[in-house]
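We modelled the chain as a single entity of 123 amino acids. Its sequence is:
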Amino acid sequence: QLQLVESGGGLVQPGGSLRLSCAASGFTLNHYAIGWFRQAPGKEREGVSCISTSGGNTNYADSVKGRFTISRDNAKNTVYLQMNSLKPEDTAVYYCAAYRFGLCVMNNGVLYWGQGTQVTVSS
């Protein structure tokens, strides 16, 4: 069984922080670039961030730049998304995904998805 498992979601007030984790079950995560996506009700799923296998290459959606930080600990087989200064518009189900290739590049298809974790930002 090859699966990604997200954790760390929950309810936070505007301006608060959460750290999401993405862990691998059944395979070694450090072979893959990992992306975070989110989908809000009535919205298309959008890419939030991506990190290369080594952690040396990252990218972020404009909407989260300066607030979110992606990182990885390959020894722990885990990728993190630190989310600070959260806004109500960040409310969504967040998914992590393992890409085919090790860099965050175009035409890099997703091989594995997590089940998603709910993030709700509300006062």
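As a brief sanity check on the tokenised model: Residues 102 and 109 are 11 Å apart (CA to CA). The mean pLDDT is 95.
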